[in-house]
Amino acid sequence: MKHKNVIIPQYDVPDGLTPLEVQVIVNEKISNKSISAELIYLANKGYIKIDQEYPVLELHKDFLNSKKDYKFTFLKYPDDSLPIFDKEILSMIFGPKSEIPNIVYFSDLNFRFQNSIYKIKKQVEDTLIQNNYYKSFLNLMFVRTEKGVYINEYLLGLKEYLQIAEKDRIKFHNSPNKRPEVFEKLLPFAIVLGVENLWAKEFEDVYNTPPSRYTG
Predict the structure, then answer these.
(1) Is pTM, for the whole model, over 0.90?
(2) The 102-105 sheet, strands edge to edge
């Protein structure tokens, strides 16, 4: 697979990658912010619902560093298509044998996220190795394959698309229409790519009601 180191705007996420996988491929790390993005991704997939609880004490960008409280509602059991690290996140929040519906408040999780981030990162890395985005040598080096280099460039193209203004975006062939569902689908990826504010700004004029799967 040839790559030319030329960044071309892209309009979607390749290979069914999740926000955590995108974060590791592009930035080679996992942060609290990327876990928050993965939770929004799981909400978009119908597994959970996220509601911000009031009163609001202070505004932050992600769940794990927030002084707000959040209510997580378990809506759907994971199937075989869900990656192991997403199953780990659901189990971490709701327990290994959760019933539907189950409601958990973030304030009751007792730092489970911080304690599990290393395990989740290792699961993401193992998945990327299994899918030939990376190679591991004596567990000492974690390096991109040719496929990984190509996908990294593709994802940088997605970042380019997410941060440009609508007037420039519509010039590209096959660019999707400006609709709320497009915003919701790509928001978790805008978060891990660090351009969520620019992406959100472009949809201020078309968003009349909050998403049904996450509020606040």
Answers:
(1) no
(2) 102-105, 69-74, 48-53, 214-215
